[in-house]
Design a protein that fits this description.
single chain, 698 residues, alpha/beta, 5-stranded mixed sheet, 5-stranded parallel sheet, 24 strands
Amino acid sequence: MTVNDTTPEDTATGEEAPPPDYGDISATIALVKGTEDPEERQHLIYSIARWAVPKGELKIRAYKNALTDAKAVKPADFNGAVREARAALSDQARTEAADLLDGLPDTPSSPYFTNTTGLHVNSHFGPVHLANFIPTITEEVTRYTGAETQKLFTLNVTSSVNGAQGTVQVTKAGLKAARDWVYDAIGGRGIIYPSSRDEAHVVAAAQYLSLGVVEERTTYAFTGWTEIGDRRVFLTHTGALGADGMDESTAVDLGTDKLNRYALPHPDKALAAAAVRASLELLALGPDKVTAPHLCAAYRAVLPLQPETTVWTFGGTGAFKSHIAALFAQHFGPELTVRGFPTGWQSTANAMEGIAFQLANVLMVVDDYVPQAAATRTDLAKLNEKVERLVRGAANSAGRSRMRVDGTVRPELYPRAQVLCTGEDVPAGQSLQARTSLVEISRGDVTSERLTAAQRTADQGVYAQAMAGYVQWLAARYEDEDDWPALLRAELADGRDRIAQDAGGHSRAPEAVAGLLLGLRWFLRYAIQIGAVTKEERDDIYMRSRAALLDSSAVQAAETRSLSAEAIYLNAIRTALTSGRAYLADQSSDGAPPRTEATKWGWVRDDLDRLVVRGEKIGWVSGQEVYLDPGAAYAAAVAQAERLRTPLQTSRARIHKALYAADLLPSADAGHLTTKVSAGGGRPRVLHLKAEALALWS
């Protein structure tokens, strides 16, 4: 690389000379360090910025990080040089544009000009008054959402009537609608005078008048892991946290004050061990079955994998569900208190889905699910639709596909957060409950004294400090390993296979438990490395948490089985019989079964102690053998399930297959689920069950 000492003012023509080639970053660092004269160093830094600016934001950031890391330049000095370079390049572009216009026949040197009456355009017929205000673009923002890149423009509008000023930010599509953004900026006093292509002229004038004064910056609108330059960093509102610390120059704006409360502090090594111990002490806040899932979820959230489960805490009023959830949310920012949650069930389904996508790799609390408070069936259906989209989307890493106006498909906004829901009830249905890790909490499990002490610690930012140190440590792993997420997936799969031997129930249960324990294991590795816990303490914390998660998983598996289609069907049949809404006849006589058994099969005694029926016949019984009429039994089950508010929405054929799969049809085979028996004076096809099957879900 060759570098001369030419400064912007040293050219023979008075124009700025093109900068040298600074492609060798190591040589550039050495050159800056070797330049001792302050004025010469300032010119050199400007020359480097002048070379980097046309090459884009990534090149600017790469050179800034390299030079500042090497202590060759201060960040503020390099930022100032970049601003000067951008202004110089914009002035150059403006001059070249004016020169080009001067060279055209009958073309004025400047297409737009301003005076005390506002904005004008030079036309072939003379000056045309466009507007009674002066617009300029002051800022161009490149906004990364995690799904796509947006361009935003900040406009300053000054009224020529009374000097009133206003600022407004618009998208690139909104930039075209000049009348809209003028109204937003200064209200009805801003007038665009009708003429051919009047709004297009106002926009073009704003662009022309702003050459050389537009500040360009980049912002990120999501949390979690991303790559900036050559660094793996974790974004929160504070900035980009990497292995080398927090870079506050990286702008992260999540869009609302509550979302911007996701803000990790600068890691402080002097506080790290104490902060980690304080965080782990939350395990003793209440029973392990309550605290372990929350603690594991907080540590699991920051790993660069999609979460395996939604943690769902439920219990009655006064159990401190929301306050407990807030303690773990405050690992990601001390202001994430119960009044600081960014969304709730009152939000729209689309808003919740978008926020869950934004909040990648953090704990997102959705508070206070109370289906009993729904005023109408329609309100309840809307509430459950939100639950369905959030929980299923989180488990399947899937969102709703949408189309752009031009017919192309927008990126899916699927939940990337580790979701933690609280409520007084659990989501309805076997499938949804299988996609959650249910945590039941009762009044008294957590005392107000312990909770208050933990809240004080959280408000002081101690838990957030523990998480910040953990994330910085993970960032080093991310950069050191060739494919760290792949190693995590392999560790997750191994843990899932081992847990599958201990956790029965739904096939998702082992993966959910393994995912939560994966987060805990990595946090404990960090805790051991910084000396926050001993190996004995680590083992105790891990085994207690593992046992609590496995116990909860076993209880949940049993409860989830009671929500299966075959369980709902059999429970509906049993309650229809015991309530007298349906009955079974004796197989031999087609009348009442033996008196000692008759009331169990839907028969009742009248005032004369005679056995009578009031419901519909759904089959026959002989001793311990039950023969259900497939059609009549299904109709009775659907009606009774609706009364029990556990709707049976599975088809008759699928119910029969589920009963067969559960080994509840002793006379069936894969080809024939029904069998012929002699009953009711004929040979009907029936579902043959054992009487004990109806008692399985009683």
